[in-house]
Amino acid sequence: MGPVPQEDLIQLLAPDGTRTGGGFEEWIEDVDGAALQGLYEDMVVVRRLDQEATALQRQGELALWPPLLGQEAAQIGSGRALRKDDFVFSSYRENGVAYCRGVGYADMLRVWRGNAPSGWDPYAVNMATPQVIIGAQTLHATGYAMATKFDGADSVAVSYFGDGATSQGDSNEAMVFAASFQAPVIFFCQNNQWAISEPVRLQAQRDIADRAPGFGIPSVRVDGNDVLACLAVTRQALDRARGGGGPTFIEAVTYRMGPHTTADDPSRYRDPNELEDWKGRDPIDRLGRLLDAEGLLGADVTERVREAADRAANELREACVSMPEPGELDVFDNVYATPHAVLAGQRRDYQRYLASFETAPGGAS
Question: How do 194-195 and 198-199 pair as beta strands?
Fold first, then answer.
């Protein structure tokens, strides 16, 4: 599969770091030099966290990790557009969005280390824990958005998913409901060109963004490696939803530079030339070139960003290796929101079963 055509994408920042004036500049008029540096630091830190987590998995500290390498602009650009009271429903790859929402490093890793069935308290950061069932989060986001509208609030639900999820029934059903009820929800598709080991063109004969209008949902196709364009189109979609305009579908065209997960070997199905093509569109290098051209990437900034990234990686590693092991009975916690007699009985039975090993002949006691 060759490079994706760029002429039909919303783009504000070209791969060489020049501003293109792509028609959405009004949505980022407030993004000054300091804000650009902030977006750059966000992407560098998130990439460093992702690389550290991948290393932790290779060293046996995590069971699995889903890398986001190459998708930093899509996640940071959209994530930084959100308001605190907006609610995110993501897949397992949106650790950059989780970073924007304030999720702690230990909470990002807890599930992948096998220490807990869930990573964090969704209501503490207004982001649901990652959904592994492909596309299911689109329904969750739509339901939440419908409830938000019924409550009279102007917060917005955002669902993140990959190109592969658009072939699932859940995502299509979600768009039916979202359009029917004009729910304030954004469907943010990160088209990273590969649904595990199958190229996107195998399941989508047209652009994925072309599907949404069939449900009555306006869509936009954006350069997913352009952090400014991703910020702009997300802000526009949020504004539309808050004003009662209903859902929006965003297709962020990006690329998964690494494996689907650390259990995957992309060299078995991906042309290495394709990877080289996309390296030239790297989202961090792109913004770095703009900053450099505007005199905003001096040695002091570079050093500050490097230190922030190293500090974050060290904190992530420490959070991982120092994470306490779960208790034998923790599996019964948080199954139900309120006490449940049947579950309590199962817990007592399991506790007696564990105790039997301590008292049996040849046991620990």
Answer: antiparallel
pLDDT, tens digit, 9 for 90 and up, residues 40-98: 999 999 999 999 999 999 999 999 999 999 999 999 999 999 999 999 999 999 999 99
DSSP state of 59: T
Q: Answer whether 241's CB lies under 8 Å from 233's CB.
A: no
What distances in angstroms separate CA 65 from CA 51, 162, 314, one per listed residue? 10, 16, 17
Q: Give residue-wise pLDDT tens across range 293-347.
A: 999 999 999 999 999 999 999 999 999 999 999 899 998 988 898 999 999 999 9
- Helix axes of 227-242 and 72-79: crossing angle, nearest 10 degrees: 40
Give me the helices (H) in 13-157, please.
33-58, 72-79, 95-101, 105-113, 122-125, 136-151
Q: Which amino acid is at 151?
A: D
Beta-bridge partner residues of 191: 253
Would you name the residues annotated as active-site residues? 256, 260, 269
CA–CA separation, 4 and 11 (whole Å): 13
